[in-house]
Amino acid sequence: MPVPDPYRWLEDPDDPATKDWLVGQERLLESELDALPGREGFKARIAELLGSGSIGAPTWRGERRFFMRRTPGQEHAVLYTVDPGGAERALLDPMTLDPTGLTTLDSWQPDKEGRLLAYQVSVGGDEESSLYLMDVAYGDRIEGPIDRCRYSPVAWLPGGEAFYYVRRLPATEVPEGEEQFHRRVYLHRVGTSTAEDVLIFGEGLEKTNYYGVAVSLDGRWLQISASRGTAPRNDLWVADLQASSPSSPDLVVVQEGVDAQSALHFGRDGRLYVFTDRDAPRARVCVTDPSEPWFEKWRDLIPQDPEAVLTDFAILDDLDRPVMLVAWTRHAISEISVHDLVTGERVGEVPTPGLGTIGGISERPEGGHEAWFGYTDNTVPPSIQRYDARTGETTLWAASPGAVEVPAVKTEQVTYLSADGSEVHMLVISPPGAEGPRPTILYGYGGFGISMTPGYSASILSWVEAGGTYAIAQLRGGGEQGEEWHRAGMLSLKQNVFDDLHAAAEHLIATGVTTSSRLAISGGSNGGLLVGAGLTQRPDLYAAVVCSAPLLDMIRYELFGLGATWNVEYGSAEKPDEFAWLHSYSPYHHVREGVSYPATLFTVFQSDTRVHPLHAWKMCAALQHAQASERPILLRNEAEAGHGARAVSKTVELAADQLTFLAHHTGLTS
Q1: E strand segments, 503-567
Q2: Fewer CB atoms < 10 Å away: N or C end of the chain?
Q3: pLDDT value at position 608?
Q4: Which whole-number Å values give the CA distances from 188 to 35, 192, 198, 201, 212, in the listed order?
């Protein structure tokens, strides 16, 4: 069927017409935003609340540890190390690398002895990571850059002489337009040219594959996983590096062609622990012998829970009775249970600071009786907690470094019914004692199995302190209730996610929290698709929309950025039945002339290499042409910024502009 696309010319950012159009949009944005009250107040308060800084969990290598921390006033978090003698020093400060603040530290991985550090940085938000090596003792860069390393894991062999990593093929070796794909796993030996790297895996496989790679603590076991794009399934191989060479590992299939996700952990006790959602959509932990890693040999250690989702585990074995700590989320609220390592019997729980979100549990690689985990909730900045299995006590290990006065808020978890009767959970954050309908932002994501969990947010707190309510809906497509919940909102079932959003809005109105004239929706990336569908399907239900870095043209999304890696989530327009799904909700294709649409602010980032800003450009143009009311349709097009990490000052500016816009169009005047 023919599909109208009147603004396709906006797909070319280098076209003079596109450039002129963007200049005009910038002028329109400035004229509208500059006239709105409250912007400087939001900026000041968001910056103040972000002055809490941040702190990351320690990564141990013997008696040396590595961690991230951002102090008040810093634009980016800094990577620190603490020497065995207790001396702390900064290893990597992005502002030292680049005083403009445009360089971000994307990932880092010390070798197994803590002597060398592999780290990846990118510039201007493009996420095109380059990999470097550093001598930890001296802080000197000893190798790099190795380019084309976006999203690359690094798996060190013992001794720090070599590591496995993932790198894209050169652009000259792939078809035009496929430069973002075609990854391979390589072995790199420190001190040699990348031209001598050994190709280990990936030849002849799916172009959109992502690869994971890990090496056990003792260096004996190599595991490689492959996922087609963002598919919620992976193939998995393992090799015994004692029985075959690291440069030519004899890989044995653990899982192939199975609709499930699995990962391996080689225990210090000689057992193989399998984290999997195979036959267990809320996940479980199984055990087997490393020499028999196949599914038929797996035995349940921590079975699937009927309600909670298993998210992580850690092993503490310097005890008379070794234990496994198991992290769960129950309706997106975190908890940790303690289990006998041999039998899996539940023997206790880990005290946690409150009803919030727990980050990954870390342990010392060589074993011990201590574990560390991050904690945050809606009013508590990130902290690191230490659990001592000998005493059963949890204590504060490190708090975020800045002292801030956090406003009092009331957080409720409510449930409501969606269009098909499904029960959906939602967090509602309000000023204490607030009564009557009030300006409300409804936020959602609903995709890729990503869970919406409680967390410290300067933007949310600023909004609520000003008198508004902020609601976070745990829509289908997310991971809050496990993999079945994810799949209930993907592919042909994507409309469920939009129905869940509309039902959340109707619940907030029916319960007196807000009214449609005071209700805004906000979302980014896949959440931008969500609110794009929201405003085109139910323009009467919402007063205002913030749509950030969105996917909106679902007929052509695969042709740009990383779009081809997402057809496992959305479907492909090249297949007739999947085209029908996509066309049924594609926001750009459902803009209708003469409709009174909500006031809408698109925020996009010129260096975004995941979701091209053309989606918002085209949708903005279509809405401006179609809009039947006086409510504005605006575009905030930010240069030298991308989809992910950014400097704090850029975060403040963006959040203040968004809240100022939403406050004006929902009547928040406090």
Answers
A1: 519-524, 544-548
A2: N
A3: 82
A4: 56, 8, 7, 13, 16
- In the predicted model, residues of the chain with pLDDT beneath 50 are none
Instruction: Specify the pairing of strand 333-340 against strand 323-330.
Output: antiparallel
* Cα first-last separation, the chain: 50
Long-range contacts of 176-180 (CB under 8 A, 24+ apart): 177/559, 178/207, 180/561, 180/562, 180/564, 180/609
Closest CA to 310 of 58, 456, 476, 479: 479
Residue 641 pLDDT: 81
Total residue length of the chain: 670
> What tens digit of pLDDT does each residue of 20-66 get?
999 999 999 999 999 999 999 999 999 999 999 999 999 999 999 99
CB neighbour class for 509 (10 Å; exposed up to 12, middle 13-18, buried from 19): middle
Classified as helix, coil or strand, 172 is helix
Round to whole Å and give the CA distance between 422 and 551: 26
- pTM of the predicted protein model: 0.96
Catalytic residue list contains 522: no
Single out the catalytic residue among 425, 643, 664, 665. Answer: 643
Which one from 525, 548, 586, 607 is the annotated catalytic residue? 525
What is the rounded CA–CA span in Å between residue 461 and residue 376? 14
DSSP SS3 for 323: strand
Are residues 233 and 261 in contact, defined by beta-carbon separation less than 8 angstroms? yes
